[in-house]
Amino acid sequence: MALLVGNVAWSREDAAVRRALSERLGVPAARLRRVEMVRRSLDGRRRPPRWMSTWKVEVDDGLEAEILARRPPGVRRYTERDEARRGRLSLPARRWRGPGRPIVVGAGPAGLFAAWRLAEAGAPVLLLERGDPVEERQRRVRRFLRHGELDPESNLLFGEGGAGTFSDGKIYTRRRDGEVGWILRVLVEHGADPAILEEGWAHIGTDRIREILPRMRAALVGRGAEIRFRAAVADLLVEERRCVGVRLADGEEIAGSPVLVAPGHSARDTWAMLVAAGARAVQRPIRVGVRVEHPQKRIDLARYGRPRGELPAASYRLRSHPPGGRVRAAHTFCMCPGGTVVPATNHPGRVVVNGMSFSRRASWWANSAVVAEVPVSDYDDPADPLAGVRYQDALERAAFAAGGGAFRAPAQRLVDFLDGRVTADLPRVSYPRGVTPADLRAILPEPVAVALAAAFRHFDRRLPGFICEEAVLIAPESRTTSPVRFLRDEAGASPTVAGLHVLGEGAGYAGGIASAALDGLRAAEAILAAPATRPLSGR
Ligand SMILES: Cc1cc2nc3c(=O)[nH]c(=O)nc-3n(C[C@H](O)[C@H](O)[C@H](O)COP(=O)(O)OP(=O)(O)OC[C@H]3O[C@@H](n4cnc5c(N)ncnc54)[C@H](O)[C@@H]3O)c2cc1C
User: Fold this and answer.
1) Rounded-to-integer distance, Cα 479 and Cα 78, Å
2) Counting atoms of ligand 1 from 1, which one is nearest the CA of 159?
3) Angstrom distance (rounded) from CA 456 to CA 46
4) Which residues' Cβ are closer than 6 Å to ligand 1?
5) Smallest Cα–Cα separation from 341: which of 446, 252, 472?
6) Of residues 431, 374, 368, 377, the one with CA closest to residue 399
7) Are strands 484-486 and 281-283 parallel, antiparallel or unpaired?
8) Do 230 and 349 belong together in one domain?
């Protein structure tokens, strides 16, 4: 029998933890059998900040009832759900019953986890990825970051691991359930730090993700999957409104079913191909804005009230909701403590920024997206499901032009953005392609610029020092989410093209590594479990 005990000051010393637990439970430490940490997170609101933790405590049956009857604060029975959240859930055993082979398109988190689950069930999965395996992809990315030579097929967004590979590697979601726990466990089994199972704000880091991917690739192949890189799917083979395979960019046709397409938020050609093939899609609102970069030390001081010492690089999460509704809401997103701002584009002639970090989060800078809402009414055509792509694209082209080419990004000191002047002297920033002073109000759509200005003033009240001479805005952050959603029936398939499943962030159902992986896992589960979605016979 076990109890879950929350809100316990964390200590490295086993004896100190046992003492705290025994005080909370009102029983001698000797009567606590086994204790295991379930979760730990830093409470930065306290001065000084403090690590707090949650524990599983095993006690004898009779004692458990006695303790619960006294209702000590933060204590309840430890349940199977708690166990599942820690990655200790076994998914139901499934067997692939299809006659053909399922095809998964895209090796980002959604495609990888869909392929993983299908292969685990014995399906002879074919995984097609337009970019390179991670080792070669790293070389291409290095060339791009150093010399501006962009490979449109293999870059910061495309290639093994998808957009998650050169990312910050934050892997928390709002949900923390058994399936997410299972995903985290798979990552740990392939090299992620086991602490991600316990950390409240788990983070892997791009360096570790790049080590995990080849191990997952080997394990997938070991389970009978075939993986082909540099295999861009240019078309779907559709017969009588059923997807029965794919055509690659070089003209090769491959039969297989079902077809699971997990294209991510930047494969605009793949979206167009899906729509042209008959997959029903609708517009989605997006959020756009800038990356703000501060010296990490400044954020540490603002959050901790002192230099961080042993504590992790401090982060923040801020939101602005101006009353009255005339000025749009804005919020921070994907904050990267100790990270760098990167040129996250796969398209020549476009500048898009995002944030990345290594596992140690040791860079001199802190950056975060600050984005405002863009409703679909801002798009140029209410009837075209891909109108949001044009909205993003126009912004990214304008930013490329303002940057002066070679993927330099337009930038402005935050104080100058608020005062309406172009910055004369930009400080050093982490963005590797270089920045060019620009008037960001002239690049950003007006309601977005107004919302950001209001948000920065609000954030400075919440986090004093947010507005400072050293803070620099780098633009644009235009791909925080997908501007399109592919509709699904109850079984998760396209309602208009049988045997087609569009997954992950590019489908409009996920917004991060963990949620995309979860969407991929669920699509595979639905295919394996539901007789109604059993594979259609391939050609
Ligand atoms: C710089 C950066 C930092 C980020 N940081 C974080 C973070 O810290 N935490 C977090 O949760 N999320 C983060 N994200 C977002 C996260 O990476 C994505 O939400 C997630 O990767 C989406 O997963 P996905 O599988 O849906 O798509 P993707 O990861 O985008 O994968 C799609 C894959 O499909 C392939 N593909 C597309 N079209 C085709 C085709 N026609 N044929 C064959 N292959 C194709 C692409 O090459 C790509 O590899 C970050 C994103 C970026 C760009």
Assistant:
1) 40
2) 49
3) 24
4) 105-111, 128-131, 157-159, 162-164, 166-170, 232-233, 262-265, 267, 270, 334, 342, 344, 354-356, 504-506, 510-514, 516
5) 472
6) 431
7) antiparallel
8) no
Task: List the pLDDT tens digit at each of the 539 positions of the chain.
Answer: 899 999 999 998 999 999 999 999 999 999 999 999 999 888 877 777 889 999 999 998 789 999 999 999 999 999 988 888 787 777 889 999 888 899 999 999 999 999 999 999 999 999 999 999 999 999 999 999 999 999 999 999 999 999 999 988 888 766 667 788 899 999 999 999 998 888 877 889 999 999 999 999 999 999 999 999 999 999 999 999 999 999 999 999 999 999 999 999 999 999 999 999 999 999 999 999 999 999 999 999 999 988 998 899 999 999 999 999 999 999 999 999 999 999 999 999 999 999 999 988 989 999 999 999 999 999 999 999 999 999 999 999 999 999 999 999 999 999 999 999 999 999 999 999 999 999 999 999 999 999 999 999 999 999 999 999 999 999 999 999 999 999 999 999 999 999 999 999 999 999 999 999 999 999 999 999 876 444 443 33
Domain with 412, as residue range(s), is: 285-477
pTM of the model: 0.93
Verify that 120 and 225 share a domain, yes or no: yes
With CA atoms as reference, report the closest residue to 523 among 509, 539, 537: 509
Instruction: For residue 514, give the ligand 1 atom closest to its CA.
Output: 11
Query: What is the residue with the minimal CA distance to atom 45 of ligand 1?
Result: 106
Instruction: Specify whether 471 is located in the same domain as 487.
Output: no
**Shared domain check, 443 and 301:** yes
